[in-house]
Design brief:
The chain is an all-alpha fold and 162 residues long. It is built from 10 helices and no strands. It folds into 3 domains: 47 residues, Arc Repressor Mutant, subunit A; 42 residues; 51 residues. The protein is 74% helix and 0% strand.
Length: 162
């Protein structure tokens, strides 16, 4: 019985799907691709999906620029992601290049560098390595995994004793 429930896709009328999609978009900012994927998951067909997406854009439930800015700000503030990782996430969400650039440029440079320094200090506190070269390399790798650019990481490591 449970396997039957899991294998069946819910089937909605276009009006029901639109109402569900409105609620989905009202909960938090969504990209067009996220909504499109959700609609296909609900068993909708291509023509219906595109019509619903168009309606949601017209009614301002979906706004790619607003989504890109919100995504960049949230991932930077809450998760401490750098520009490279944010860019990759936005590309995965099928956001256009100009909007990705706009979102990345909306990040405050001073706050960006301050956040990187904070991340490096926190990581430095947990390292046991004594060799300064190896220690800096570990810190650099950590910051790079968070999506920060190499030149900024090296500049911060050079200017601060960690």
């Amino acid at each position: 019985m449970d396997d039957e429930k899991l294998s069946k896709k819910p089937s909605y009328t276009p009006q029901q799907a639109r109402l569900k999609a409105e609620a989905y978009c009202a909960f938090q900012e969504r990209s067009q691709q996220e909504v499109r994927d959700r609609l296909y998951g609900w068993g909708m067909y291509k023509d219906e999906v595109e019509a619903i997406i168009a309606d949601l854009i017209t009614d301002n439930f979906i706004n790619e620029e607003r989504f890109a800015r919100s995504y960049a700000s949230g991932k930077f503030t809450l998760k401490g992601w750098g520009r490279l990782k944010i860019k990759q996430g936005l590309q995965y969400k099928a956001v256009s290049r100009p909007l990705i650039a706009l979102a990345l440029n909306s990040l405050d440079e001073a706050a960006y560098r301050s956040k990187l320094l904070e991340i490096l200090k926190k990581k430095a506190g947990s390292l046991t390595e004594r060799n300064p070269y190896k220690r800096n390399h570990q810190l650099w790798r950590h910051a790079q995994a968070k999506g920060y650019e190499s030149d900024i990481i090296l500049e911060i490591l050079k200017d601060n004793e960690l």
